[in-house]
Structure formats: structure tokens, C-alpha cells
Amino acid sequence: MPSLYDATGPRVLFGGDYNPEQWPEETWPDDLRLMKDAGVTSVTLGVFSWARLEPRPGARDFGWLDRLMDLTHQHGIGVVLATPTASPPPWMGARHPETLPRGEDGGVIWYGSRQHFCPSSPVYRRYAAALAGDLAARYGDHPALLMWHINNEYCTFCWCDETARHFRRWLRDRYTTVDALNEAWGTAFWSQRYDDWTEVIPPRRAQYLRNPACTLDFRRFTSDALLECFTAERDIVAARTPHLPVTTNFMPFWTGQDAWRWAEEEDVVSVDLYPDPRDPLGGQYGAMIQDMTRSQARGPWMLMEQAAGPVNWRGVNHPKPRGLNRLWSLQAVARGADAICYFQWRQSRQGAEKFHSAMVGHAGAPGRTFQEVKRIGAELAALGERVAGTHVTADVAILHDWHSWWADGQDGRLSRELDHPTVVRAWHRALWEAGHSTDFAHPERDLSAYRMVVIPHLYLLTDTAVDNLVTYVHDGGTLVSGFLTGVADGDDRVRPGGMDARLRELFGIGTVHEWWPLEAGGTVDCDGPDGAFLGTLWSEELEASTARTVGSYRGGELDGMPAVLRNGRAWYVSTLPEPPALRALLTRTAHQAGARPVLPDPPPGLEAVRRGGLLFLLNHAPGPVTAAVPGHHRDLLTGHRTDGPVRLERHGVAVLRQERP
Ligand code: GAL
Predict the structure, then answer these.
(1) How far, CA to CA in Å, does 426 sit from each of 88, 295, 456, 516?
(2) Active-site residue among 54, 162, 266, 305?
(3) Which of 179, 390, 629, 640 is found 20 to 30 A from 460 (Cα to Cα)?
(4) Contact at 8 Å (CB) between 263 and 297?
């Protein structure tokens, strides 16, 4: 399998989406010169160029792209060449309306924006495959070509008749008989029994709650249908250039794709990441997405898009204060990225994203944004050789699974306040603030490399996942689980006793009697091994069997009942403790498990990450911080030696190489 490192060598790629069809061709050489000045090593071309490349059905206009590929090569800049299949030209929707997606209520999603394609449409797929094939044939041998970028942020949903036919085929593969489907979906309830496959439709808008097992399967199907689009184009380009890696860029923590499954089909995993510059914990959000992406990649990965300044799709869009772009870029390198790229090179003057920042803003080269970009380019060029291809190791894993998220995000559940990513983020934050490096892992994956595994909340766990967790603890691992975990099986069937029986035995729980979700913003008083704390979001009425109760609810309906249980190396937390309490609890369990933070007692806001032989220090605090770093080091960014405390300004970064212990 070709890797990014094979394609690019020991460097960190630096660049972004370049959409030069917006500008007169005479300006392209100026862009390329400016790119050289900024240390740009790669550009992503063609992401949204379909209408330019195929102005009418079957026509081809490659001349401009030929000249552009040659120009980038003359400047020593590599090309990540995209298939432009995320935005079909208007002629496709006009001539083939069946390629346009339909919403849950049957309404057409029109062209005029982007991503307006039905993934099940054979017509869309045929045109997409033909263009991917012609791009591969034409540019497969071009010396500028570094790798392929298929489509862009696969994220469409469709409920049309073609989708219905495709969904039925997918269900037949999964269940073979309609009786098995009826059994898995529990259609005996509410007279939903299907007599024949032709009666089955996607979960369209309906009078009242829809069958949750059907909506869960529709999520699974949609992820798989989009994946078929990706693999079809991937196979076409890979057949022409088997030595070059292929990727598609994920949206961060996006609900529509089972990214564990998708990552297996990619040579290189890439992600787009846009933390809110106003979020004081934006650095933690970035760290979480980076950990997730690195874990999917099982090694180095690409930051395919970030913003040099503001985005234009939040309610209020703020620029990045001085230094923040650099801090977050180097953070991604620390957490395993071998490419730091932006959307986009030059800020648009027209179109939907003209107020979205770019590497070169409306202010041009003298602008602050470009000057900062230039500094980052220079620093990455200096660091590249030392970091590219190296790994980050973690002794704590956070379990996450899309199928569980899909299953517990449906209608008809106990609380709409329960948002899966929010809970995962709270647990990641606790570990991030405690200074631990974390991987993410799928619950069925071998976990033996980790001293501690945490489950923020996994409502659905398959039998295989349960076996895996039991084995992990029996073999000496420490497992800490949050609330409402192991409730449903792989078909979203609730397990008797409120939790899988083997899991109850593992956690020392007799019965889960009731779930008591909290109101929005509500809290419940608790005490725990580290003192009194507030539980948020959720509480549970459960009875311990062999577990020791190490924290209890205080007051209210659950007064005196267990909130935190410990059964040997297995812990269960039946609420979401407020941040300091969750941090204290996970610090305690990690310590007992032998998992060590990167630096002991990091000051608040300081992130420390080891990648390969380097120690990255990243200051996310609102002011300067000083970190105690044992040993003698050299900061590769400044060339200065340090022996003892390292002071970092606001948004400051140090990349330390040890010289003597
Ligand atoms: C990404 C997308 C880019 C651009 C960017 C703006 O989702 O891939 O094309 O739209 O967002 O933030």
C-alpha cells in the first residue's frame, strides 16, 4: 500500500486547495512565485473543477489543467490531484434530474451549491468514473503528481427511489431473507411486518416515530453507499498509478461516515479541521480530532484543510488572533500530521466563500495572515526531516463507534440532551488536561497495547465488542466506562437487565433498574473518591453486586445509591462528572493503571506531546506559562538550549530535542 512518506519523502507537506479557475491565467505565475516564497510544497487541484473540465456531457477541457500542472512542476511544487466529483455541473442536474438527491419528504435538493448528487445514482457514478479515468490517464505520469484526492468531504444523504432500490439490495446482503429483516427490526411492533422486499423503503418522513433499527441500518447503508463511490474512483486511479497514495478528506467527527471502516480503504487518512478561534478549548477540540484521525490512520496523516483566519459558516466568524494559526498547525504536527494544508490558497472575491479566509487574504502578501503562513512554511521546512514518518504513542485509548452513535441518536430515546460527541469530548478533555496522550480505538479492536481504556458512552456494543472488553480486563487492563453503555446489541435490541450480563459481571453490577436523565443544564450532587462533585446530563438507578461503591448520589431520588463503582480494574461511572471531577477520577485510574502523563503536573493550558524523539510544548493558555522539563534540550524552532524550566508566551510553541538526560 503506497504511503504518504513513499510519495513525498522526509518532509511535512505544506499547502492548500488551489482553485485558480477563479483568476485570469496571467496571474497564475504570480501565485506560484508567492507559494515558493511561503514554502508551499503541494497544492490540491481540481476539487471543484468538474464544470470546467467537462463543460458539457462527455466533452473534455484539459488544456488549462495541463498548463497548471506544468507550472506547478516548474516551481517544484507537487500536486494532490482531486477528482471533482463532489460538485456535478448544472448540466447533469438539468439533463438527469434523477442524479439529484431527495430529502426525507421527497423534495429535490437542487444544484446551485455543491454536493448535490445521489450516491446511488448509476448516471452520476458513470459520469464520475469516466472523468476519474480520463484524469488518471492524462496525468498519471505527470511528474508533479504526488497523490490522489477523491471527491471532497463525502456527506450527502438521499431518500429517492433509486436509493430505495439500492437500500433493498444492501439489506438483502445483510439479512438474506425478509423474515430475518423482520426479526432484526422488531417489526412485530406497530404492525410493521414486511411481506416482501419490494415493500421496504428508506426511512422517509412519517407520521410519528420511525423504526429505530431501520433508521440505524439506513445510516449504515448510507455510509456504505458513499464508500462505494469512493472505492470505485479509487480503484480507477489506483489501476493507473498503483505507486501513488489515494485519500479522501474526512469532516471532523462527522456523523455520516463510519470513519473506522473508511480508513481501511484509504492509503492515507486525511481530515479537515476548523476549531472555533473563540473557543477557549479549541486546542482540546483540535487535539481530539487529531487523535481520532491518527488512530484511524494508525500512523501519520494529513491535515487536508484548515483556515488561516475566519471561516464564514458560523453565526459569528472571528479571525485567528496572532500566533493561533501557527500553534494549531504545529499541534497537528505534534499529534502525527505529515501534511499541513489549508482551504484555500487565495481568498475568493466572488462566490459563496468570499469571506472565508485563505493563505493569501484579500489584503494580499503584505497582510498579517500571509506573513504568518510564511513563517509556518519556513518552520515546517526545517522540522520536516526530523518528524515526517515518526509516530506518537499513547497508553490510554478512548473507545468510539459510529454505529453506537447512530443508534443512540435516534428519536424515541430517553433524552434529547444526550449528544454523543459532547460526551466523548468531555472525556477526551479530562485526559488532555491531565496531560495524557490518547488514541481512539474501535471497541472490537485489540486493546492490549493500552494500560487504560475508557468508554465515554457506548450505548450499542456487539457481542464481539463485549468479549473484547472482558478479555482486555482479564488480561490486566484497566477499563473505565461512562453511563448508558452496553445497553443494546448490534441490532439495537435492548439487553435484559439494562446492560449486557457479562458487562454487568465485569463492572460488578447486579441490575440497572432505571435511567434518570437530567434536564438541560441540570446537575445532581455526588460524592466520589476525590470529594464532592456535580454529575451532569445523566444518572442511573443501579444496584451493585461485587463492585465497591466509591461514589454515591447525594439527595434527590437516588440519594445514597451508587454513582461510581469499582470492581477490581473495571470502573463504571453512571453520570457525567463535571470537568474537574472527571479529570481527578481519570488521573487516579490512570495512575493505578501505570499510565503516565507526558509531563508530570503540566501547568493549565500547556499541552505536551511526544512524537518520535521530539517533545512538543504548546501553550493554549491565555497568557505565558512555564513548564518544568527535566534534562537538557535544544529547541529546534529557535536553536536555543534549555535546561530546566521552559517559558512559553501566549500561543507559544517549543519543539525540544533531548541533548543529555
Ligand atoms: C470544507 C470544504 C472546503 C471549504 C471549507 C470551508 O468543508 O471541504 O471546500 O468549503 O470547508 O471551511
Answers:
(1) 39, 19, 8, 20
(2) 305
(3) 179
(4) yes
C-alpha 564: how far from chain center: 30
Rounded to the nearest angstrom, the distance between the alpha carbon of 150 and the centre of ligand 1 is 15
Active-site pick, 54, 153, 162, 540: 153
Nearest to 47 by CA among 249, 192, 267, 243: 249
Nearest to 158 by CA among 119, 123, 197, 128: 119
> Catalytic residue at 557?
no
Q: In ligand 1, which atom is closest to the CA atom of 249?
A: 8
pLDDT tens for 78-97 read 999 999 999 999 999 999 99
Give the three-state DSSP class for 333: helix
User: Which residue in this structure is represented by grid cell 467527527?
Assistant: 253
Give the residue, out of 305, 314, 344, with the most ligand 1 atoms within 8 A of its beta carbon, to mutate for a pocket test. 305
Q: What span, in angstroms and rounded, lies between the C-alpha atoms of 37 and 378?
A: 9
How many CB atoms within 10 Å of residue 495?
18
Q: Angle of helix 161-175 relative to helix 212-240, nearest 10 degrees?
A: 100
Between the CA of residue 521 and those of 322, 417, 459, 537, 629, what are the distances in Å? 34, 9, 22, 7, 39
N-term to C-term CA, the chain: 38
| Cα–Cα distance list, 422 to 42, 278, 482, 604 (Å) | 35, 18, 13, 21
Cα(182)–Cα(171) distance, integer angstroms: 11
pLDDT digits (tens, 9 = 90+) for 249-288: 999 999 999 999 999 999 999 999 999 999 999 999 999 9
| Residue 59 grid cell | 466533452
Is 183 designated active site? no
Task: Output the residue whose Cα is nearest ligand 1's atom 11.
Answer: 343
Instruction: For the chain, state the CA radius of gyration.
Output: 26
Cβ of 356 below 6 Å from ligand 1: yes
Residue 554 contacts residue 547 (beta carbons within 8 Å): no
Distance CA 300, CA 284 (A): 19
Q: pLDDT grade, residue 155 (50/70/90)? A: very high
For atom 4 of ligand 1, which residue has the closest CA?
Answer: 343
Paired sense of beta strands 531-536 and 576-577, if any: antiparallel
Q: Is the peptide bond before 22 cis (omega within 30 degrees of 0)?
A: no
State how beta strands 509-517 and 538-544 pair.
antiparallel
Q: How far is the CA of 343 from the centre of ligand 1 (A)?
A: 6
Instruction: Provide the H-helix boundaries in 241-299.
Output: 259-263, 282-297
Q: Is the predicted pLDDT of residue 240 greater than 80, yes or no?
A: yes
Coil/strand/helix, residue 517: strand
- Ligand 1 and 311: CB distance under 6 A: yes
Asked whether 295 and 262 are in contact (CB, 8 A), the reply is no
The cell numbers describing 573, all together, are: 461511572
> Which pLDDT value is given to residue 1?
87
Residue 278 CA from chain centroid, whole number:
20
* Pairing assessment for the beta strands 653-660 and 614-619 based on DSSP bridges: antiparallel
Nearest atom, ligand 1, residue 274 CA: 12
H-helix or E-strand spanning residue 533: strand 531-536
The full length of the chain comes to 661
The C-alpha atoms of residue 511 and residue 278 are separated, in whole angstroms, by 44
Extract the C-alpha cell encoding 479. Answer: 477499563
pLDDT confidence tier of residue 7, bands split at 50, 70 and 90: confident
Residue in the block written with cell 480486563? 473
Task: Among 150, 353, 354, name the best residue to mutate to test ligand 1's pocket (greatest count of ligand atoms within 8 A of Cβ).
Answer: 353
